[in-house]
Design a protein that fits this description.
By secondary structure, the protein is of the alpha/beta class. It contains 17 helices and 13 strands. It has two domains: 202 residues, 3-Layer(aba) Sandwich (Rossmann fold); 179 residues, Glycogen Phosphorylase B (Rossmann fold). The protein is globular.
Length: 397
C-alpha cells in the first residue's frame, strides 16, 4: 500500500491559550504516527494572534510534517472566520489526501466541504467533548445528530461517555453506526527527563519558597468551572493560610474571575498567569492540581499533572471518571460544590507523605499504561489503513 496522506484539522496552534489539550494532542499525534505508512498534514484553522503559534508550525515543518494556519480568527464573526478558513485551505494547493480527520466542531464542517476538492476517500472526526455545540442546539440537532452519522466514515469519542452519547443518536442506531473509543494521549517524554529549578520558578512567580501551591490549567471558560474553584479559595485559606493559587490560561471569563477574586478578598493569593509556554515547569511547582470542570471529554491536563507527579483533585464528570481512580490515582468531588472541592484540596495537602507518594506512583503508572501517545498513534495507524483499504473496495462517492 502506498503512503496514506491524512489531513489533521485542529482549531489552531494557540495551545498555550486560548486553546489547549485538544490541539496539543493533534500536534503530538501527527509526530507519533508511523511515517513509513502515514503522511500527516496539520491544518490549524485559525490564528488567534498569540506569540507561540508560528513556533508550533515551524516545529512541525522542521520535522518533515506539513503544517499551516488557514486564516485569522475573528471572535465577533465566527461564520466569516469559517469561510476564510475554508478559502485558506483551498489556497494551500494541497495534493489529494486519502483521509480528512477533524478534531474540532468547525473542523467537522470543514471536512465535509473539503472532501471532494481534496479527493478524500474517507472522513473521520474525533469528538473531544461531552457536549457538542453547547450553545448552538440547532447545529447539534442538524449536524451531530442528523448529518454526521451519514457522512463520516468513522467517529471517535475520547471517553466512554462520549462514545455512548454518539451511539444513542437515533440516526446512528438506524444506520447501525457505532463510535470508537479513541483516547487522548501524552508524549510522556516531555516529563521523563524534565529538570526544573523550582526555587527559581517560584521566585519568578513571586511565591514564597515554602508556600503550598494549588494550581489549575485551562481555558478560562464556563466549562472549566473556575468560579467554583475561586469560591472554594477562602475555605482553603482558613485551613492552609499560607497557600497560593496558580491559574494558568486565557479566555472569555478572565475579567469576571479577576473581579470575583477581588470581591472575595483573596486576589493577593491568586496568580492569573495568562497563556504560558512553560506548562511542564509550572506543574513541577504545584503541590496539588485542581480540575473543577462542569463537563469534560478526556482532559489532557489531568494526564499531564499525573505524569508530572502532581496529585489531582477533579470533579466527577465524564472523562475525569476514566482518569481518576478514587483514593488511588487522585480524589474526585461532585461538580458545582466548592465546599467539597476545598475539603479535598485540604485533605491532599495534609495527606501523609508516604500515602501521597503512593498515589503519585500509581497515577504515573496509570497514565503510562493507558494514555501513551505511542499506543494511541498505533490505533490511528490501524484505523487509517483500514479505511483506505475499505475505500478501494467501494465505488467513489
Amino acid at each position: 500500500m502506498s503512503i496514506i496522506r491524512v489531513l489533521e484539522i485542529i482549531s489552531g496552534f494557540a495551545i498555550e491559550g486560548p486553546l489547549g489539550g485538544i490541539e496539543r494532542f493533534g500536534i503530538e499525534l501527527a509526530q507519533a504516527l508511523d511515517r513509513s505508512q502515514i503522511e500527516p498534514i496539520v491544518c490549524g484553522m485559525w490564528s488567534y494572534h498569540t506569540p507561540y503559534e508560528q513556533d508550533w508550525v515551524t516545529f512541525l515543518q522542521e520535522r518533515g510534517i506539513g503544517a499551516f494556519i488557514a486564516a485569522p480568527w475573528q471572535e465577533s464573526r465566527p461564520t466569516v472566520s469559517f469561510w476564510h478558513a475554508y478559502q485558506g485551505v483551498r489556497q494551500q494547493n494541497l495534493p489529494p489526501v486519502d483521509i480528512i480527520h477533524s478534531h474540532c466542531q468547525f473542523g467537522d464542517v470543514l471536512a465535509l466541504l473539503l472532501k471532494r476538492p481534496l479527493q478524500a476517500r474517507a472522513l473521520v472526526r474525533t469528538v473531544h467533548n461531552e457536549r457538542e455545540w453547547g450553545k448552538r442546539p440547532l447545529r447539534r440537532l442538524l449536524l451531530t445528530n442528523g448529518l454526521y452519522p451519514w457522512r463520516f466514515d468513522r467517529e471517535l469519542g475520547v471517553a466512554q461517555k462520549v462514545v455512548d452519547n454518539l451511539d444513542q443518536r437515533p440516526v446512528a442506531r438506524l444506520l447501525k453506526r457505532q463510535a470508537i473509543r479513541g483516547y487522548n494521549a501524552l508524549n510522556l517524554n516531555r516529563f521523563a527527563q524534565l529538570l526544573v529549578d523550582i526555587p527559581a520558578k517560584r521566585r519568578s512567580l513571586g511565591i514564597p519558597p515554602t508556600a503550598p501551591i494549588i494550581g489549575s490549567i485551562g481555558r478560562l471558560t464556563e466549562q472549566k468551572g473556575y468560579g467554583v474553584l475561586l469560591t472554594a479559595v477562602p475555605q482553603i485559606l482558613q485551613s492552609i493560610p499560607d497557600a497560593y493559587f496558580l491559574i494558568v490560561g486565557a479566555g472569555d471569563l478572565e475579567g469576571t474571575l479577576h473581579q470575583q477574586a477581588q470581591q472575595s478578598g483573596v486576589s493577593d493569593r491568586i496568580l492569573f498567569t495568562g497563556a504560558r509556554s512553560d506548562v511542564e515547569e509550572l506543574l513541577a511547582t504545584m503541590d496539588v492540581f485542581v480540575n473543577s470542570s462542569l463537563w469534560e471529554g478526556l482532559p489532557t491536563v489531568i494526564m499531564e499533572s499525573m505524569a508530572a507527579g502532581v496529585p489531582v483533585v477533579a470533579t466527577q464528570v465524564a472523562g475525569n471518571l476514566e482518569l481518576i481512580q478514587p483514593e488511588k490515582t487522585g480524589l474526585l468531588v461532585p461538580p458545582h460544590q466548592p465546599s467539597a472541592l476545598a475539603e479535598a484540596v485540604i485533605r491532599l495537602l495534609r495527606m501523609p507523605e508516604l500515602a501521597k507518594a503512593e498515589m503519585i506512583k500509581q497515577a504515573r503508572h496509570f497514565v503510562a499504561e493507558h494514555f501513551s501517545i505511542t499506543a494511541v498513534a498505533h490505533q490511528h495507524d490501524h484505523l487509517y489503513r483500514q479505511l483506505v483499504t475499505q475505500s478501494y473496495l467501494l465505488p467513489d462517492t
